[in-house]
């Protein structure tokens, strides 16, 4: 008996894990973090508060929130030697392997606080990662544009600090656009956790060997980078740009998807769990309209995306396969309107997913039932056979 469910002991052999962090009902389109519906958190909370909720299990009091935010502010700087890592990457390096490399390298700078069994080390690693990932992400972007890195400005909020490090220049003051900060905070909330998805399962599997938090999160970043997973938000933009480049014929593109033309998929559609609709997608779609209005930007690609959604939602091929827009379908359009290049979209997904990865890793390492991950297989190879010498082959 754990909480409100009774577990069949056999569950352990299914490779399933227990978790009290996020609940998804794929048929009903339900997503809750620690019991709170995603729509309520999106409307009433902010990303740091949701991060606290995911990691510690309860919404913080004002004093707990202030202490959490202050601890994070105190750790936003990178070690100057880690900053020099970025000099070694090629200018055109994709920011995701840069992000994963820098996170992995954090474990070489904090060797005294890596033990997953030491509560203090887990706490300081949690704060360091939440504080430093935005700085690392901003520097990964600055590297691609050859601009100087800005040190964090701790008088700014969490999101605002990241935006200034990303888009600010030492040559002139940078004013954060509140509309951008507010929209990015909301998108980070929507991405903050999602049960046992590919990258979170990777974080838990790597962590189950008692690898440290930085190593586990670095692995999760790599898993997220794949186009079937977090890489999809960038792939949606490439798909929309391809449709426009080929004349904007949405119906023709949908027919090519249905004919299963090689490499032609409706990116941003479909989900392993949501077989009705992804509750996050509805919120993101509304945000896209709001953000583009507030930024005074229209985007032909948003119009194409809406046409694509309209056609697909009324086409049996997609309806029969229960393919609906997922969280990635509209997010890239918002990130583009904010000024981020396509390559940074999955980095933004990682920034949002970080508290969920940390919460899931922490939950796993303190679980007394937790064993090293060891997925089983069904062997389909040769039966036993004897060795044949080279001359007989
Ligand atoms: C995320 O797990 C999570 O929670 C992930 C995530 C999170 O928050 O962590 O929600 C984030 O990763 C969202 C998903 C982003 N990925 C994409 O948008 C990429 C495009 N989507 C697909 O590649 C696919 O839908 C997956 C990978 C998302 C889900 O794959 P499934 O559930 O394994 O589905 P499937 O590959 O078994 O497909 C079922 C059928 C197949 O047709 P048939 O062979 O049965 O005829 O649907 C078809 C597929 O060909 N299909 C698609 C399609 N997705 C599935 N056909 C066209 N376009 C698509 N996008």
From TrEMBL:
Q: Which Gene3D superfamilies match?
A: 2.20.28.60, Citrate Synthase, domain 1 (1.10.580.10), Cytochrome P450-Terp, domain 2 (1.10.230.10)
Q: Which UniProt keywords apply?
A: Transferase, Tricarboxylic acid cycle
What GO molecular function terms would the record report? citrate synthase activity
Top-level lineage group: Bacteria
Q: What residues sit in the active site? A: 271, 328
Q: Name one GO biological process term.
A: tricarboxylic acid cycle
Matching entries from Pfam families are given as:
Citrate_synt
**GO CC, alphabetical:** cytoplasm
Q: In which pathway does it act?
A: Carbohydrate metabolism; tricarboxylic acid cycle; isocitrate from oxaloacetate: step 1/2
Which protein family is it in?
A: Belongs to the citrate synthase family.
Question: Know the name of this protein?
Answer: Citrate synthase
């Amino acid at each position: 008996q754990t909480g409100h469910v009774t577990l069949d002991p056999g569950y352990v052999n299914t490779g399933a894990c227990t978790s009290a962090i996020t609940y998804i009902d794929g048929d009903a389109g339900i997503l809750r973090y620690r019991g709170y519906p995603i729509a309520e958190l999106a409307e009433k909370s902010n990303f740091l508060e949701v991060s606290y909720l995911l990691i510690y299990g309860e919404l913080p009091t004002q004093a707990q929130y202030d202490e959490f935010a202050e601890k994070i502010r105190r750790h936003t700087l990178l070690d100057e030697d880690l900053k020099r890592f970025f000099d070694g990457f090629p200018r055109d390096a994709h920011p995701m392997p840069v992000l994963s490399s820098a996170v992995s390298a954090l474990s070489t700078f904090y060797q005294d606080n890596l033990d997953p069994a030491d509560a203090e080390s887990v706490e300081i690693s949690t704060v360091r990662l939440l504080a430093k990932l935005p700085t690392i992400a901003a520097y990964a972007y600055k590297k691609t544009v050859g601009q100087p890195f800005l040190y964090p400005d701790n008088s700014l909020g969490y999101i605002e600090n990241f935006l200034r490090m990303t888009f600010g220049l030492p040559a002139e003051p940078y004013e954060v656009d509140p509309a951008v900060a507010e929209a990015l905070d909301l998108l980070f909330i929507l991405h903050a956790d999602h049960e046992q998805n590919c990258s979170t399962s990777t974080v838990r599997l790597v962590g189950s060997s008692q690898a440290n938090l930085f190593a586990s999160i670095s692995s999760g970043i790599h898993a997220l980078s794949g186009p079937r997973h977090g890489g999809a938000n960038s792939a949606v933009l490439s798909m929309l740009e391809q449709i426009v480049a080929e004349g904007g014929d949405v119906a023709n593109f949908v027919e090519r998807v249905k004919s299963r033309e090689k490499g032609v998929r409706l990116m941003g559609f479909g989900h392993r769990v949501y077989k009705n609709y992804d509750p996050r997608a509805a919120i993101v779609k509304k945000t896209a309209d709001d953000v583009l209005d507030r930024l005074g930007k229209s985007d032909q690609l948003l119009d194409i995306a809406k046409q694509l959604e309209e056609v697909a939602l009324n086409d049996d091929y997609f309806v029969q396969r229960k393919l609906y827009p997922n969280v990635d379908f509209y997010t890239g359009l918002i990130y583009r309107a904010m000024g981020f290049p396509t390559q940074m979209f999955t980095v933004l997904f990682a920034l949002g997913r970080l508290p969920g990865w940390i919460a899931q890793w922490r939950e796993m390492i303190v679980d007394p039932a937790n064993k090293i991950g060891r997925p089983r297989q069904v062997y389909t190879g040769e039966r036993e056979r004897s060795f044949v010498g080279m001359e007989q082959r």
